[in-house]
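Async update (no meeting this week)

Hi team, since we skipped the sync, here's where things stand on the single-chain job. The sequence we agreed to prioritize is pasted below, unchanged from the tracker. I ran it this morning and attached the output directly underneath so nobody has to dig for it. Comments welcome in thread, and please keep replies under the output.
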Amino acid sequence: MLDALFFAGLVLYFVAMILQFLGASFKKDNLKKYAWWVFLAGFACSTLYLIVRGIKAGRFPMSNQFEFAATFSFGIALMLIILKERVKADWLVTAAIPMVFLILSYAAFQPRGIKELMPALRSVWFVFHIGTAAFSYAAFILAGAAGIRYLYTEKKDKNSPELEDIDFMIYRLIALGLLLLTVTIISGAIWAEQAWSSFWTWDPKEVWALITWLLYSIFLHLRMNRKWKGHRMAVFAIVAVPVVLFTFVGVNTLMPGLHSYGAVINYYLM
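Output:
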């Protein structure tokens, strides 16, 4: 049942991505409407999958690379739904749905077995630390998607009134992501002191989380103090995405450390 739910969500996201692309390319509103319904069906399957997996595991499903990727994808999808339904950011859908699909596709290539939590992960900080990390990454990814939309809209019409809304959305998403990442780093430091008797160990994951934090802090500094807006900030939001993905994927793959339990049982803190 679990695998059926997971792959049903993955397939539905793929179908939604294709329908949305066709609808946007050929200006077919009906196709875009169907794409959104299919996307919501995929989200329902993915959400149900995480709930059932969590019940079966007896914990929140965020303890290894597969589960974190699935939660990461869920976070992007949830934020997209909120932005579309509450803020009417329909323009974000075409660029964001592929992000949801790609992150969940990455999860599909990870081991999906359910195992007991290792001692270092049994903490009250478990959900708080990892959950804020997943949603901060999701906000940054959506900011990148909004950046792509900004450049596309600007190319079509440099005077489009939509550009200001997109620019402000990029700013808000990055501000939210940075706030959540700050909570992630602080809670991680507290957890690290409890687990390893040190608030900071210069572990590769910690270093790259700090690099990501500094990068987006520069964005906010330029935005708020230098009053930078528009094209160059959209480019900044896009260029910063690979740093987020490297912090998520690259560090665990290429730079094993205290946050990587892959050499033993493929468990991770973030």
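Quick observations from my side:
Residues 2-254 form one domain.
The chain has one domain: 2-254.
Reply here if anything looks off.
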